[in-house]
Amino acid sequence: MTVAAKIVSGDEAGLRAAARVIAKGGLVAVPTETVYGLAGDATNDRAVARIFEVKARPQFNPLIVHVADRSMAAKLVSMNRVAERLADAFWPGPLTLVLPRRRNASVSLLASAGLETLAIRMPAHPIALDLIRLSGRPLAAPSANPSGRLTPTEATHVAASLGDRIDLILDGGPCAIGIESTVLDLSEATPRILRQGGLPQNNIEALVGEMASGSDIGPIRSPGMTAGHYAPSIGLRMDATSVEAAEALLAFGAKPLPGAATTLNLSVNSDLIEAAANFFSMLHRLDDRRYSRIAVMPVPETGLGGAINDRLRRAAAGDARSRGD
Predict the structure, then answer these.
(1) Which of 29, 168, 191, 320 allows an S-S link to 211, with CB 3.0 to 4.6 Å?
(2) What is the pLDDT of residues 230-250, one digit of tens each?
(3) What H or E segment, with its residue span, contains residue 41?
(4) Inter-residue contact 15 to 134 (CB < 8 Å)
(5) Is the pTM for the entire model greater than 0.70?
(6) In 10 A of CB 254, how many CB atoms?
(7) Sheet with 117-121: strands ordered across
(8) What are 12-28's pLDDT values in tens digits?
(9) Are 257 and 242 contacting, i.e. CB atoms less than 8 angstroms apart?
(10) Is the CB of residue 316 less than 8 Å from the CB of residue 239?
């Protein structure tokens, strides 16, 4: 028997309860001025993996990381002059900035989908800001709905779609804006709108001038959707049933293949949430010129396995030896 998540008021008692859930790696639906977000500790790999699992998100697309103030943002991303001007004008508010990730950023690599950028914003909602402050950490918080379903703008919407899969729902009433934030990529020389949203484009252009947009490059795409984008420098092959002595092995399950130069195991217990949580960090650790290539044992396509395999296929796209033995 499943138990629906408790809906609590966003008062002090509710916020403290929510902060305790976050500290334990749980998930909380939190109101923002745009939509309700599915919030988890952005520094906790497993909490981030649970977000993807709960949303049934088909791919590991980057998540927006929410901060309470500019100093928290500055610890995670490199804020250039344009970002500073935009933050002065529109933060807190419905503007997400994609910026270069700092090398020592505490945010899970899974939250940024292994990219060298982070999508970051400061929400303009007292409950969201108070929860971030009480939690003492940035929160990853995509919309609190299953992927492909209607975006929630009230607590009851979240309860109807995710109520038995998350730990707590903070009720802050209806969202003031009701559509997602505008996403602006500042990681390249020319600012680019990746997603239209709650902040009109002309408001941004008034500060930064003319920008590129998704329409300039065909359909709007999330960062990291191109094949090969995640390719390790030493190459990668999937569905390995044997391993060469010079290869690094990314294992899955209780029986890793013998004979590799080194082995890391996504999950000894075949837990796909644990595997997703470990995925990007382990790929980074194995991407070392001491090894000839990374061999990856088969991962089931069920649940988060589909997202893991999607990223593996992209990573293997540039390697002619990418499949099997």
Answers:
(1) 191
(2) 578 899 999 999 999 999 999
(3) strand 36-41
(4) yes
(5) yes
(6) 10
(7) 6-9, 168-171, 28-31, 36-41, 139-140, 64-66, 117-121, 95-100, 182-185, 192-195, 212-213
(8) 999 999 999 999 999 99
(9) yes
(10) no
